[in-house]
């Protein structure tokens, strides 16, 4: 099945509710894909805006994750730090279709990451 700019990263069942899985990105930043207790899915770059703590290892509550390092709370919807903390981590557009998770390809393989296999490669 083709979804244009959407990248199939697997079935929704691979991520238990209330947890996250990481997705390594060749030539880019690791992504954390979250499954909330409400059954929603979100994807953020797996680096806290404070000091790059691994958000995938944080505690998910509602649509927020608490960073495991210094307890900043980050909105899963926007990637923004909440409360009195300031900062933002890129969020990756995500959709669920027929039980599978799709990420926006252009956001995963961002131009800022340099050559990451989006075009033809010299052998
Ligand atoms: S690295 Fe996330 S709160 Fe410090």
UniProtKB/TrEMBL annotation:
GO BP field? nitrate assimilation
UniProt-listed InterPro entries: Rieske-like_NirD, Rieske_2Fe-2S, Rieske_2Fe-2S_sf
Q: Which UniProt keywords apply?
A: 2Fe-2S, Iron, Iron-sulfur, Metal-binding, Nitrate assimilation, Oxidoreductase
Enzyme Commission number(s): 1.7.1.15
- Pfam families according to UniProt: Rieske
Query: GO molecular function terms here?
Result: 2 iron, 2 sulfur cluster binding; metal ion binding; nitrite reductase (NADH) activity
The Rieske domain covers: 9-103
EC class of this enzyme? Answer: oxidoreductase
| PANTHER family (alphabetical) | 3-PHENYLPROPIONATE_CINNAMIC ACID DIOXYGENASE FERREDOXIN SUBUNIT (PTHR21496:SF23), FERREDOXIN-RELATED (PTHR21496)
Protein name as annotated: Nitrite reductase (NADH) small subunit
């Amino acid at each position: 099945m083709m979804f244009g700019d959407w990248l199939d990263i697997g079935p929704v069942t691979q991520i238990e509710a209330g947890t996250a899985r990481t997705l390594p990105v060749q030539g880019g930043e690791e992504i954390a894909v979250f499954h909330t207790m409400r059954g929603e899915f979100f994807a953020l770059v797996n680096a806290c805006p404070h000091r790059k703590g691994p958000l995938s290892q944080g505690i998910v509550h509602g649509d927020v994750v608490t960073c495991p390092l210094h307890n900043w709370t980050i909105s899963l919807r926007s990637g923004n730090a909440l409360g009195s903390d300031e900062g933002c981590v890129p969020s990756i557009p995500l959709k669920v279709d027929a039980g599978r998770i799709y990420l926006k390809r252009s956001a995963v393989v961002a131009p800022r990451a340099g050559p990451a296999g989006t075009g033809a490669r010299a052998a």
